[in-house]
1,4-dihydroxy-2-naphthoyl-CoA synthase
Amino acid sequence: CCDRSGREFTDIIYEKAVGEGIAKITINRPERRNAFRPHTVKELMHAFDNARDDISVGVVILTGKGTEAFCSGGDQALRSSTGYADYDSFGRLNVLDLQVQIRRLPKPVLAMVAGYAVGGGHILHMVCDLTIAADNAVFGQTGPKVGSFDAGYGCSIMSRLVGPKKAREMWFLSRFYSAQEAEKMGLVNMVVPLAKLQEETLKWCREILRNSPTAIRVCKAALNAVDDGHAGLQELAGNATLLFYGTEEGNEGKMAYLQRRRPDFSKFPRLP
Ligand code: 2NE
């Protein structure tokens, strides 16, 4: 519905399936093949924040409005000498913050891709945990053709997904790849007929939602930890603290402090 100030979203649609645990975030600029401007990214970040904070949400779907495009990257008409500029007099590359936010979100994010996922839009699907693609999906980097590049996750995560040689091919040649080619390369999890895209994506969401949210949360952090370096370790380690707070041993330390006594950890086993 709206951002933190209660303003209606203009560039995205944010929906939740009540009682289902599924949030869906749709980039809503089909006339621009769902290219994003800084304002679009700000709205996406608000929606992802909301999905993170809502304990009834277990999985998030990211998609694009219509069947022509998931997302075509940064809005080239708004490129300035300092990033992308819409309402401000200066440019931003705030999509990089969004990429980090998706990686750190402790719930699975599924990219549901119909049509083009290119440029910065291709990177958005790569940072999602899973990608379900329609058979009309087209993937690729366009940066080197339009004088741009993403030397962060756009290169490193791609290299992890498709291997270093294929990643070089994708960036150096800037070709487009069909959904079937993308599946063979390990870029997407599954390809389905366009008419079945949402149904199949929801099936994956529901299957995930049947499983332990904590197991999934820790696995996501663990799967990202090496690639995300210290920030990845911090995310993984935060889960250890979160779980420890729920134990009697953790609680003993807090209670002793509050009761102004020496903590007694002697009853807790030193497990092998
Ligand atoms: C996506 C693609 C291949 C679609 O082609 P087609 O033939 O289906 O559509 P068309 O006619 O090109 O596009 C429809 C309308 O959308 C606009 C077009 O200008 C066109 O507008 P009108 O002529 O109808 O007024 N449009 C599409 N993509 C746009 C974009 N990204 N920015 C602004 N307007 C866009 C084809 O449209 C295409 O190749 N698009 C450009 C893809 C691209 O180069 N993206 C930027 C990569 S750089 C990036 O995203 C980036 C980064 O490298 C680093 C950090 C942050 C971002």
User: Anything to note?
Assistant: The CA atoms of residues 123 and 153 lie 7 Å apart.
